[in-house]
Amino acid sequence: MPFQDVCARVGGQAQEKATPARLRYLADTLCRFGLGLIPDPRFPVRAPSSSAVLLFPLDAPSESVDPPSDIYKAAFLTLSVGMLVAKANGEVTDDERSTLNELVATTPGLAPDERRRLAADACWLEAHLAELPSLRSRLSELDTGQRQSIGDALVRVASSDGSHHRAEIALLEKAFRQMGLDQDRLYAALHRAGPGPDAARAAEAPDDLVRVALGMGSERTYAIPGAPAPIAAPRPSAAAARQASVTDTSSVQGGRTVAAEAADQVDAERLMAIRAEMFAISAVLAGVFDTEPEAANAGSTGAARAEEDAAEAGGAFAGLDPRHARLMRELIARPAWPRAEFDRLAREFGLMPGAAMEDLNAWAYDCFDDVLVVEGDPVHVNLHLLPETLSEAA
């Protein structure tokens, strides 16, 4: 439901912007009535660009919101990446949704309110998918056993509908790389959980050679013939040998005459080639000396651009390379950009749109612990993360 409506009912006054402080105050108020709020800044769910919130029932009213446990954080990461895998092909099937709900219900060690919140997180994440780059640092903080458990859960989600889509496998490969897991482990798990009625038997069978069919004992066979014996060449007579000797001598003498004539011809051609090469070198040198002022101007322009890039990199967007910094300088002019215009702007600065979006979000997550650019059409820019002086200057 809209954030403004919840604020009007709880506080008596509608608020336009869902800031972290207002969301925290609203969550603390609602928990006294036995209601939980998503997003809550104390939990890993990130607020979307729209002012939408989700209410869910708690186990009982409480005076304050308990902070998330480590078990909840690990389960939320699994749920977030699992929802990305389930929706990689455009929609979440009933089987995939059931597998994700089973993950919520069977995670051991969760408090009752955490389990209720995790079930609500599944509904929220299906409507507001997390960005995989924003989860990278949290995934890297887990130990090897936890990351392997998440990887196994992701394979179960991808295989729950009985098929493996190409988009799901591509996202699984990317997730395994970010978690530092072996790609061979992924392919082996996909093979064991692959579609088909024999998937369960394939998972239990050892990875060994399989005998497909036995040969027929009465089948007629044929031996491969051996190599043919070499045929000796006949020996020439004495008269034929004398004639061949005379022919060889005349050929040598004729060859010398032809070689001499060819040498004269090569010298003439070489002389013409040298002259043509000298003319070409003279033309190139003349072009170089004629364009000295232009080269100097180009050098001064490159120096000015280098100074501008250095100033940009050390300014408000420290940590970004000059091209991404100049792109951000344009993006902060407004909170939403049509996707085609964003792609055109990224290419003007020599960047691939998708890669530029990931790099900007990785930088924003390191600086603000949140996603800066939300993919879609239009592309939303979370300007509230940036300093107010920077937004006003734009």
TrEMBL record:
Residues 258-388 form the TerB-C domain. Transmembrane segments: none annotated. It comes from the Bacteria. Residues 79-186 form the Co-chaperone DjlA N-terminal domain. InterPro entries: DjlA_N (IPR007791), TerB-C (IPR028932), TerB-like (IPR029024). Pfam families: TerB, TerB_C. This is Tellurite resistance protein TerB.
